[in-house]
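Appendix B. Chain record.
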Amino acid sequence: MKIQIIKNKKQDIANIYKLNSFDNMELLSASYVNQKFPMHSHNTYCIGILEEGSQILSFAKNNLIVPSNSIIMINPNEVHANYALDENGWKYKMMYVNSDVVKYIYSLYWISKCKNIRFKYYTLQDDFIFNLIKSFFNSFENTSFENLEHQLKRILSHLITNYATNTEEQEQVHQNSINELKHILDEKFDTKLNLDNISKSLGINKFKTIRAFKKSTGMTPFSYVLQKRIEKSKILISQNVKLSHVALESGFYDQSHFSKYFKNYVGVTPISYFKSCNILQDFNK
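Structure tokens predicted for this chain:
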């Protein structure tokens, strides 16, 4: 089964896949030179390998250089940016695994309750797991569900055993106004928002709001809203909604702005994402 290759003038190449058999797990195989992912987060575990080149993983308090042959592991909702270290770019493969899948795998091997699995490292060297992940990507289109499940179990059980903790989730306490702002953005992200008016209604200064929100979430309100809109647009695209409608229903003013931000955050264009969903929608039914 062949999926469309997306290529631009500057040689950025990305293949994206969606596996319904694993709770709509997404896979990304890409070679980037110019792609710069802005500060963002995922509601999934991000697990992958960097095959060639080097990239920068940027977090709120530090930047990490990830060399070739490295494992990458990012926990859900951890805000980060990533981009090439130099003009040579980087080639990598990433899987975006739903927390329910991780909990299911955990329940197969451990008696204790799965509380909150957190990877202890963002990047590390482990040839065994590197080859397991590479094998998973090389075979997923032409193998059975049972074999893929077996491979995924090996990958996750090894990572959890050696590089993760399982502790009670610590609830962060933020100022009431920031919680209220987050609630407003969650409820109305797909509408036209005015931060000046929202800040006034909360009784706080606009610029203090931006600084406090970023300190709390790792993103500015603008970036947070953009990500919420992108997340909704991916759902709508997977439901075969026309792209022209997706842009408006997700809160974008027009399709050109939508396409620009979608490519920035997802790494492929909306039309390419749509085609990948259709190509693999009947996978192992």
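Further analysis of this model is presented in Appendix C.
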